[in-house]
Write a structure and sequence with these properties.
With 262 residues, the chain is α/β, with parallel strands linked by helices. The chain has helices at residues 52-62, 89-94, 108-117, 131-144, 146-151, 175-188, 207-215, 229-237, and strands spanning 5-12, 21-28, 31-37, 40-47, 74-76, 81-84, 129-130, 155-161, 166-172, 197-201, 220-223, 241-247, 250-255, 260-261. The chain folds into 2 domains: 31-117, Ubiquitin-like (UB roll) (Roll), CATH 3.10.20; 129-261, 3-Layer(aba) Sandwich (Cytidine Deaminase, domain 2).
């Protein structure tokens, strides 16, 4: 996976040098992607170009517009447009408003609408992960973050099976986009529901990311950084195991710890 980057000239200031040094730098590319249904605009997201069909598939699943047993007819129509064939248009018109960390919590009614779209996980999936596997996932994701190594400006999401094998990995300027891309990969490969899987993200875990994982029936979400309070509450209420501050030798478990062996 190659992250789309742009080269630019910068002036670098460093201690011990009297004058700035002109040098080259690489930036993660950010451009709009318009998602359409039956040719009609549905949503615009700012993303790093690449794997756009996967991103659209993951987004549409997490919004309840696609169901896990559908094979979406998605086509890239130009560099910044993905279109879904028309059968899902009625569901798009009737969907609840989009909930995102950037807009704040949209209210109790929105939370209840998510529960109606996506059933809670029962905890009877039989998935148990050792601490060794958790730290193996961390190492695998770090090695796959070539875009971050080049730009310092990309988030990563990795999808793993219960044995720690990597299923999909992607990077993007938006952490939610990286998650949509790996979940969309699973949608297009007919791997959903992901009841024996782990989602690992490189930054913090917001409510939105836990919601997206629930849409794909992902039972375990882990992160290098912290969860938000609402993410932890949502995971607890919906039967998801939420792990934060995953670092070599340690982590915090915020909900449903039975899926982690001590």
């Amino acid at each position: 996976m190659n992250l789309d980057v742009s080269r630019t000239r910068v002036l670098r200031l460093e201690d011990g040098k009297d004058y700035p040094e002109e040098t080259a730098d690489e930036l993660a590319v950010e451009e709009p992607l318009e998602i359409r249904i039956g040719g009609e605009p549905l949503s615009v997201t700012m993303r790093t170009p690449g794997h756009d069909v996967q991103l659209a598939a993951g987004y549409l699943l997490s919004e309840g517009i696609l169901t896990s047993d559908e094979t979406p007819l998605l086509r890239q129509e130009g560099p910044n447009v993905v279109n879904l064939a028309a059968p899902a248009v009625n569901r798009a018109q009737n969907r609840s408003s989009v909930i995102a960390a950037s807009c704040g919590l949209c209210g109790k009614g929105s939370i209840e609408a998510i529960h109606q779209r996506f059933p809670q996980l029962t905890g009877n999936d039989g998935l148990v992960i050792s601490r060794g596997i958790l730290h193996q996932l961390l190492s695998t994701l770090e090695q796959a973050q070539a875009g971050f190594a080049r730009t310092g400006g990309a988030h990563a999401a990795g999808l793993f099976d219960g044995e720690g094998r990597l299923l999909a990995v992607n990077e993007d300027v938006g952490r939610h986009n990286a998650v949509d891309k790996v979940i969309g990969y699973a949608v297009l490969k007919h791997l959903v529901p992901l009841t024996n899987s782990i989602l690992l993200v490189s930054g913090r875990v917001s409510f939105e990311i836990v919601q997206k994982a629930l849409g794909a029936s992902v039972p375990v979400i882990a992160a290098v950084s912290a969860p938000t309070s609402l993410a932890a509450e949502f995971a607890e209420a919906n039967g998801q195991t939420l792990i934060g501050f995953l670092r070599p030798g340690r982590c915090n478990i915020y909900s449903h710890p039975a899926r982690v062996s001590y």
